Amino acid sequence: MANTSQSLDEALLLRIKKYIEKYQAESGGSPTRRDIVEYFGTNLKRANKYVHALAMRGHLELDDDGAIVTPSGLDCADYQFVPKIGVVKCGLPSLAVEDYDGMFRLPREFVGTGEFFMLEAEGDSMINANIFEGDNLVIRRQATADSGDIVVACRIDDNSWDEEATLKRYLYNNGRPILHAENDSGEYEDVDAREFRIIGKLKSIIRDMEIVG
Fold first, then answer.
1. 202 shares a domain with 115
2. In this structure, is residue 61 part of a structural domain?
3. What's this model's pTM, rounded to 2 decimal places?
């Protein structure tokens, strides 16, 4: 028998696997082949081939009709499903690239209501706020903030279209909004918040899979 795995695009196979997991986590059900076709812009034959390949490798199960089986115990009622989408610099603004890196199921009573995403902290500018490199930051997606909030903010460079993101405390200084680092070293200067747009507010910190704030 021919080894069909040789004709598979392994990167696409992984993307389809992550898409199915994300779909199940967010909806409590499984996508159809048509959903996969529309999402990836492929055809039904190819979508079916990759779904069966994932089943053969033990990454998912199919029922008697060939539909993708939703894992048992996937109860969305009491949980928020939060995607981890990349890294945010706790220092000077840096390029922020969304890169889906899995889905975390967090108790709804812990995160509350709203739309959330998770970022991994990098750098040391927020250590006085108990935020350290490697921490997973649960961010509520919102475009506004109150003075004192810790926010993720992006700056658009009109020349290069690169989007820069940073994690800082949002404050007012003499009536002017600023982004302020929480580090006593004096290495980081305040940044004019008017040059940035807020994309989210820090809700909680997860360190070593324990909720610490």
1. yes
2. no
3. 0.61
